[in-house]
């Protein structure tokens, strides 16, 4: 993208207020968010949701899903440590979420790393997630539905490289598609919006991407009719917490702690002064 395209068109009056209203609603409503996620990310995802005011539930047994999933406000599925044993539970939970008219969010971790993983992610996409959030390489792999070079859970592409792939995936799936990167890109297939908050050291903490996906699920839970706005607001709010935490951190370990504390302590003034969201189209 050219420099002016990366910057986007600022909308100072609307986005910070929207982001604050969604964080406030999450704090006041404490939505129950079911997470079927990987072993690496469970702790940080749960603590991110708690710090934002949501109520996490790490329920992944297929035996519990029929009773539990319909009562959750939203579902988050992350395939990071995917296994053949867990995939049926993920698909069953997605089916129950759809039947209950509850939003659900897919994190297609390392989607193009293997044939099994790509096939599983495509099967989950067929179950109509409300939002798909991944890095550029993951979104490109899903959009092309082909195997390509992968760096595991890391991305070998910038988020701006995946704009057209994200738009195509959004149009094909009906989902809002978010691409994490130096600028987080969110699209519904037509509109393209960018969140510019965050710090590079967040990439040095495992499960930050997984955790922001969970936060997206919480924001979509409190405003399911505006999933694009909820998604970009969650990305920006999480990035602001990272910026605030970085002011106190000495490295990745302390940033992890201060990130959670900062998310918990965000107030109206900070959100309105630091949220940076722009429209590309």
From TrEMBL:
Keywords: ATP-binding, Kinase, Magnesium, Metal-binding, Nucleotide-binding, Thiamine biosynthesis, Transferase. GO terms for biological process: thiamine diphosphate biosynthetic process; thiamine salvage. Pathway: Cofactor biosynthesis; thiamine diphosphate biosynthesis; 4-methyl-5-(2-phosphoethyl)-thiazole from 5-(2-hydroxyethyl)-4-methylthiazole: step 1/1. The gene is LOC115995100. This is Hydroxyethylthiazole kinase. Its cofactor is Mg(2+). Thiazole kinase involved in thiamine salvage pathway. One of its GO terms (molecular function) is hydroxyethylthiazole kinase activity. Its EC number is 2.7.1.50. The keyword Nucleotide-binding applies.
